[in-house]
Structure formats: structure tokens, C-alpha cells
Amino acid sequence: xxxxxxxxxxxxxxxxxxxxxxxxxxxxxxxxxxxxxxxxxxxxxxxxxxxxxxxxxxxxxxxxxxxxxxxxxxxxxxxxxxxxxxxxxxxxxxxxxxxxxxxxxxxxxxxxxxxxxxxxxxxxxxxxxxxxxxxxxxxxxxxxxxxxxxxxxxxxxxxxxxxxxxxxxxxxxxxxxxxxxxxxxxxxxxxxxxxxxxxxxxxxxxxxxxxxxxxxxxxxxxxxxxxxxxxxxxxxxxxxxxxxxxxxxxxxxxxxxxxxxxxxxxxxxxxxxxxxxxxxxxxxxxxxxxxxxxxxxxxxxxxxxxxxxxxxxxxxxxxxxxxxxxxxxxxxxxxxxxxxxxxxxxxxxxxxxxxxxxxxxxxxxxxxxxxxxxxxxxxxxxxxxxxxxxxxxxxxxxxxxxxxxxxxxxxxxxxxxxxxxxxxxxx
Length: 427
What we know:
This is F-box domain-containing protein. InterPro entries: F-box-like_dom_sf, LRR_dom_sf. It comes from Chironomus riparius. The protein is an alpha/beta fold. 31% of the residues lie in helices and 21% in strands. It has 15 helices and 15 strands. The chain has helices at residues 2-9, 18-25, 41-47, 65-76, 96-104, 124-129, 168-171, 194-203, 218-222, 248-260, 275-282, 326-334, 349-358, 394-401, 410-426; strands spanning 57-60, 84-94, 111-119, 135-139, 142-143, 160-164, 182-186, 209-213, 234-238, 267-273, 290-294, 315-318, 341-347, 364-370, 386-392. The chain has a 15-stranded parallel β-sheet that branches. Helix 4 runs parallel beside helix 5, helix 10 (248-260) packs parallel to helix 11 (275-282) and helix 12 packs parallel to helix 13 (349-358).
């Protein structure tokens, strides 16, 4: 038993020869991932000069700064052109020791993730990756010194940028980026960075994917949105606080973006109620395929609305709703004749009947809380292929079990299979 445990702990680099590595890696496709949690010196010694190793993805996850220093130094001085480098460490500090080895290395970074770290006396990590990085994800990065406000990084190759709740002096380093395809931004509560968002939106005409989580400055951004030249394919618009109604400014900004991007959007995700004006705009989009939104409209009054029939939407996810949303659900289902995948947090009897009546092409149904207690007809959901749920009303399960198997509909069998899975999972 002891020998078996020791074998599991052996570094694989001690087992395979450089010749075997070459033979293995030459058959790897670029999309394949190779992961090693700690970049040891042995890693580089054993693989020799294999060119196939340049596609490897390095992930550094260590618990102490000493371990990080050693692995980072080995990585930076390896002279290898690693495409993806991910550094994820709660105690990450970019200090002078790492800066020294960084200036020696020739690594050309393509994808970099810095998470929960701190820059001490200089911005050398940005300098190392500026010319080559294509995908950059920064989350919870702090800066302990006063940055020169005139410092600007151009990042000529940067295509995908994620800024998630970083210090303001870090985010401002990216205001001159001009070649972004993807911009994912989430603002810290105490900041007001609408000027940064304005500049990035105005300077990136090639942007295809935009994700915004804004607390302040929506009105100022709204004033320039019609000047933006990009044509989005994917939009995510999230408010920072769940279960809190979207502010008037945020809703107006969202509606303006939806109106301007209505001819190009293919995927749309909104984590709060977008209002009836927003809903009407959404159902006029002719290229929209995937839609995620909430219909928990709180105390808002229900006006008489008419939604266009939308034949392009094939998937709908509803993250939150009220118990009595039948009115708006009826309008939605009636306008989605080509719906194939439906995912929702709650389904009751009347919701299920309306869905089946108007969405005959439905193939996949995902329901978090399936609260129905009967299935009306033998041919209910004629094209359904998959049903999954986390919580199924016991009443409908007992009614299905009371029937002979030959008399159960196809949908009833799917419900019973899902209920069986829940019982096995909870056991």
C-alpha cells in the first residue's frame, strides 16, 4: 500500500524520457490542455528542446510566496514560448525578485490570468506581457504605490480583456487599448470609472463581445453609446446587486445598447428585469439565438404589451421570476415558435401547459423547481428528448408510478428518470 502511494506522488518527469515526450506531444492538437500545478526545474530539464512543448498551458497554484518565486523564476528563465500562463494565488506579490528574473526571460505570453495579487513598486508584470498578450484576465489586483497617471500601455495584440473589481489605478492602464474583440468589466463598489468605460467603448470598433457590470455613471455612458461603431454578437449586462431592481439610468443605457445592436446580437444575458420596453426590443432582433433574462418585475404595473413573433431564438434561460408570472410567460411562449431549449428556475401547471401549447419544437427542458402535479395528455411535449430538474413535486412522481409502464407518456418517463437521479444523488 505504501509503495502504491509513493508511485502516485512521483513526478511524471522522472518517468518519461525526452524522446517519449517528443513522441507524445507531436500528436497533441492546439486545443488540448496540459496542466502542471507547479513548474519545477525538473520539468524543463527532462523535456529537452522539444518544440511541441510550446503549446503547453502553465497553471501556477501554490500556497506560499517561496514556492511561487521558484516556479515563476523557472518559468521566466526557460526561454520557452508558452501560450497560456495562469497565476492564481491569494498571497501573490509582484516584487523585485520576480522582476529580476522576468527581465532575463524571453517568454512570449499569449494568455495571462492574474488573480488576487498586489503590485509593490513598479508595473513590471504589465511591461513583461504588453507586446505579446492576446487574452488578459485581471481580478482583485491591487497597487500599493502611486502610479504615474501618464503611464499608458497600448497592448497591441490584446483581443480579450477582463477587468474584475481591480484597483482604479490598475484599470486605467488599459484606456488606450484599440483592438479589443471582448471586453468584460465589473466595477468595484466605491469606484466611478465611467470615463474608462467610455474610452474603451469609443476606441474599439471591432468589439464583438461586451459584458458590463456598472454601479455608477450609466447616464454618462448613455450619452456616447450612439457614437460607438462596434457591432456586437454577444452582450451581458449585469447589475451588481441581485434581487435589487435595475436603476433607471442602467435600464435606459441597456435599452439604448439593445436598440443600436439589435441587428447583430446573437447572444444576450441580463441578470435583472429589463422592463417592457427592453423586452419589446429583444423580440424584434432577427439574429438573436440565446436569451437569458429575469422576469421578476417586482411592483411594476403590467401594461398591455405585444411582442413580435421571433423565429430566431432557440434557447431561453430565465434566472428569476415571481410565482404569478403567467401573464408575461404567455406573451413570451406565444412569440417563440422555434424554441428548442428552455431553462427556468420555476415551473407550475399553467406555465407547463402554455409552454407545450406554443413551443411544439421543444427538445430540452431544465427546471430547478418543477412544481407541477400532473401531465395532461399522452402526447405532451411530442419532441422532448431531455428533462432535468433539481426538485420535483412528489405528487407528480407518485401519480406516474401509479400508472402501468405501457400507459406512461414519453415525457412522464423522463420526469421519472429525473426524479430517480435526484433520489440517488441525495442518498
